[in-house]
# Entry
Amino acid sequence: MESRTKTSHENLEEGEASTTNSSTKGNENATAASSANTDKRARTFDLTAIFEETKRTAQTQFAESHLAKEEEKGSEHSARQGTSKAQTSREKAHENSDGRGTNSDGNGAGPVAAEEADSDDDFMPSLPPGFAPKNDQSAKDDESDGDDFADYAGEGLPVIKLIPAASEVTLEHGSKMAVTAIAFDGPGTRFLAGGYDCSLSMFEFQKMDRSLKADRVVEPCENNVIHHLSFSPNGESIIVCNGSPQVILLDRRGTRFGETVRGDQYLVDLSNTKGHTATVMCSVWNPIVKGEFLTCSDDGTIRFWHLDDFKQITKQINKQRKIIKLKNANGKRAQPQTCALSFDGKLVAAGCGDGSLQVWKNSKIIVSTTYLVRKAHNGAITCVRFSHDGKRLLTRGLDGALKLWSLDDNKAPLKMKTGLHTEYKESDCGWAPRGEVIYVTCSPATEGGAGSLQFLDPETFEVVYKIEYPNGVSAIRCIWHPRLNQMLVSLSDGTLRIYYDPETSLMGIKQCVTRPLRRSRAEEVIKEEMILAPLALEMFQGRGEEPEDKEVTEWRLRRYLRMKDNEIRKPFKKPAEMPLSGPSTGGRINKTGGTIHSFLAQQMGKERNKDFLADNDVRASILRHAEAAEAEPLYVAKAYAKTQPVTLFQNKIADDDDEEEEAPMMKRPKRE
# Structure
């Protein structure tokens, strides 16, 4: 036991000693490692040297590839020359790679080596096989080709090049009456047209072929002229402003799903009415607030509506959200002919029939104008457009003038153009998508003259381009779609014109003019008609020997036709009779007392006539009221007051023994 105990103690001591030694060695190694890490430094790279090395390597590879191409040509002279060039380049590359060069004296790199190294700085990838450098004449030709735009290299493309009017397409609206309303949807897949014929034509580019016919024609507002059309930003809803005070709401298929409420025209305060009371002239969708739009009317108001207020029960938007009441210089109603919203939705502008231009800030409560010009035009304003920056306004009037206004100054217009005659209160004007040009529609100044679509420079207001329409045709509306880069113009002869550039325009009408005509479905069906010659049938051939029997008579034809008619005509089947129900169905009358009403009426009558029915002597019961009837005669007694003042009654009562009088025959018996 003692020896075992001793041995265990010795083992413990040896283990502690070994542990101490190992920890000591570990500390020594850690100290050595830390001292070694302390002596290390971060490695630095010379980027200039690395770049020079890469450059020399590229030069060497280029020389070798050039040499290989020269050898492929098979020319000994060119091969020797290429070999000498390759050797020279290799020597230079080798000298540069060693970092030293030798001159005639055997010293280090001198100025000659430096110049040779600089001469090889211009390197390029290997040329394709069969490449031949251009001569001086081809270089001159390339320079002459680039001289086409040399005149306006510093000024950019001319304005005429930016107008997509290289190609023209004519479409028919349906009638020869003026087209006063057009609209494009946002993506540019469909457009609308409406006018004095009270019809709405819906065109869709995806379904249109070279026939250029409308996909659908509807009449949403009965016999009212369409003044304005507008698509919602998402293209799902359409607003139709017509001669009635109610705005029509259509879906993208042209189906009418709602309208705005009609106001009360007998109320003096227009803010108390729920809707317009006169013709609606224009509508604009809010570009910021989804589902909101505003309309202006001849009742002197601009009203804000929202699609969320549409009620499914009444199929109407029952009330507007905001209202603006317009006043003229005398404080009376001013009739707005057009309205517009700025691109950020913060400003609302209206052009009135008295020639005034009024602008408000679009806030929750709109009271007074922020910009007002009482005599902007000498006639009614037909169109108002905001610039893209929202700081300028473009107005078009019936006085034949086009004016540009700044919202910072309302005393005088910035630019003005006169002599733009128009006859329609829907005449249009606007900005190009990038604002590089202004377009305006015009009517012929003289009878039988030519209307026009003119493009003006916004800086000088000079005409830079003009499209004319002869034979007294007026241009009324115009839309320049920014995505398609195509222009849609409506004319007074009931036609539409689309202008586009085959190079710069996208999709739209370009894909329709090249699409082949679709065959009608009726032509695709092959219809076989059976020709019946009854005279050739066997039954019509004569059987007898006499001439009359051999001839085909009219009687035989009629007999055959009657026989065929009886075979085709189905026998008439009388429908089954419905079961009888109700008090008087089928000519039968139910017994009284079947209902509670008839039962109560029957009981009340029996109760009142109980004594009358109980008395067997009917004559005595009637004479009981003789004195009262004589004192106060009623009804028939007054008629006999003079002719028969004393009433006579039959006093004789027939006895049972007396012969019964023959009763009058009320109905004749049937004859046997």
